[in-house]
Write a structure and sequence with these properties.
With 243 residues, the chain is an alpha/beta fold. The strands form three sheets. It has a nine-stranded mixed β-sheet. Strands 1-3-2 form a three-stranded mixed β-sheet. The longest helix has 28 residues. The protein is elongated, with a radius of gyration of 34 Å.
Length: 243
């Protein structure tokens, strides 16, 4: 044999060597996976230690609202955060009358965040249990933020129609209203701060009616009727308002 002939190097990762490596790696990987599963699902490392309720609107939730949210969500300290059913918790919290929308998020490693959007009162109604707030969709709920809002005397579809009319008005008109009554969707009536009455009718042609009423209010009268805005009328008119 020629002494200058070089032997071929043996490969490091032979089939036999790879088998030995995997023989040692598989148990290690299995142990790591087991530790991860135990830590996430069964240990206190990733257990809930705080349920935080926040408001997506511009103001803070009251302590009572926070208590109600936590009670409805049903998430308790010590629950594995990975096993918290966020969808179910969100559905439960959404049942609170004053909640418009809700999102439940995991704040790893130990926090559940419940973000709600609260309903905004636009008026109030009197009920057998006291005064309730009404939002722009006609939903009623308890709220401490109803002082100064107009009172609506209506129920069912008539209540929804009254709210639709109220939120459709420009600020210069809605700010003059102290009360609204409605016996049907087509018979909405306002009471103004001046004591005068506005017969509005249905919620249709809101922009046209608002323009007509704004023009009529330059004259003093007991009743302004814009239910047929093409033919508006006034009752007991007393002439133009004094500057």
């Amino acid at each position: 044999m020629n002494e200058n002939t070089q032997s071929k190097p043996r490969p490091i990762f032979t089939v036999k060597n790879r088998r030995k490596i995997w023989f040692f790696l598989i148990p290690i990987i299995a142990v790591i996976i087991g530790l991860v599963i135990w830590a996430v699902w069964f240990s206190s490392i990733f257990a809930v230690d705080q349920v935080r309720a926040v408001n997506a609107n511009d103001y803070e939730l009251t302590q009572q609202q926070v208590t109600e949210i936590r009670a409805k969500a049903g998430v308790t300290a010590g629950d594995p955060i990975a096993l918290v059913d966020a969808d179910t918790a969100a559905r439960e919290v959404a049942e609170l009358p004053w909640v418009q929308s809700v999102e439940v998020r995991r704040g790893w490693p130990n926090e559940i965040v419940i973000a709600v959007e609260t309903r905004t009162p636009v008026a109030k109604v009197s009920t057998g249990v006291g005064e309730l707030a009404v939002d722009s969709s006609g939903n009623t709920f308890e709220s401490a933020d109803i002082n100064g809002l107009p009172r609506i005397d209506a129920e069912g579809d008539a209540l929804i129609a009254a709210v639709e009319v109220l939120v459709s008005l420009p600020e210069n008109l809605s700010s003059k209203i102290t009360g609204i009554s409605a016996v049907s969707r087509d018979n909405v009536v306002f009471t103004l701060k001046s004591g005068a009455t506005v017969r509005w009718g249905s919620s249709e042609e809101a922009d046209f009616k608002a323009q007509v009423l704004d023009a009529l209010l330059t004259r003093r009268a007991e009743i302004y009727d814009v239910s047929a805005p093409e033919l508006p009328t006034t009752t007991n008119e007393k002439g133009p308002k004094e500057d």
